[in-house]
C-alpha cells in the first residue's frame, strides 16, 4: 500500500531527534489517531540551518517527517513556508488516499516551528501577527 520511498524513509528516517537550543519548536497532534509530531529548527541568516523532529505516529507520519526535514534543510524560511502536504506526498511517491491526513502533520508542525521562531524574533521582521 505504501510506495518504496515511504518504506525507505520509514526504515531509515533522516534527521530524527531533538535540537536542545532550537530557535523554533512546533508541535502538532492529530486528534483522530492520537499521533504527535514535533519539529525543531535552527535558523541562520534566514535559512533553516538544521532541522530535527520527534514523531510518534504511523508509517506515513514518520515518512512524512523524514521527507519534510530533507526538503527544508538549507532552505530559506520563505521557501520552507511554501511547503504543502501535496509537495510532501509527491516527494514520497504518493500516499494512499486514507493516509493524506498524515501528511498534513508534517507541513503543519514545520509551519508552527517557523512561526515560533518568528514570534521569538518579533521586531526583527514586519509581522502580521504582532498583536497576538
Ligand atoms: Fe495518525 Fe497517520 S494515522 S498521522
Ligand atoms: Fe507570526 Fe511574526 S510572522 S509572529
TrEMBL record:
Which residue intervals define the domain NIF system FeS cluster assembly NifU N-terminal in the entry? 1-121
Which molecular-function annotation in GO is an example for this chain? iron ion binding
InterPro entries assigned:
NIF_FeS_clus_asmbl_NifU_N
Q: Which Pfam families match?
A: NifU_N
User: Which interval of the chain is the signal sequence?
Assistant: none
Which BP terms in the Gene Ontology apply to this protein? iron-sulfur cluster assembly
PANTHER family referenced in this protein's UniProt entry, alphabetically: IRON-SULFUR CLUSTER ASSEMBLY ENZYME NIFU HOMOLOG (PTHR10093)
Designated name of the protein: Iron-sulfur cluster assembly scaffold protein NifU
Source species? Desulfoplanes formicivorans
Amino acid at each position: 500500500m505504501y510506495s518504496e520511498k515511504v518504506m525507505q524513509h520509514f526504515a531509515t528516517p533522516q534527521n530524527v531527534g531533538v535540537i536542545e537550543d532550537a530557535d523554533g519548536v512546533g508541535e502538532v497532534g492529530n486528534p483522530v489517531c492520537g499521533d504527535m509530531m514535533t519539529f525543531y529548527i535552527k535558523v541562520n541568516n534566514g535559512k533553516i540551518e538544521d532541522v530535527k523532529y520527534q514523531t510518534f505516529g504511523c508509517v506515513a507520519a514518520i515518512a512524512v517527517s523524514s521527507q519534510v526535514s530533507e526538503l527544508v534543510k538549507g532552505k530559506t524560511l520563505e521557501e520552507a513556508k511554501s511547503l504543502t502536504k501535496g509537495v510532501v506526498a509527491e516527494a514520497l511517491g504518493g500516499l494512499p488516499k486514507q493516509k493524506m491526513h498524515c501528511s498534513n502533520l508534517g507541513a503543519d508542525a514545520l509551519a508552527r516551528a517557523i512561526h515560533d521562531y518568528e514570534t521569538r524574533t518579533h521586531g526583527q521582521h514586519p509581522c502580521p501577527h504582532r498583536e497576538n
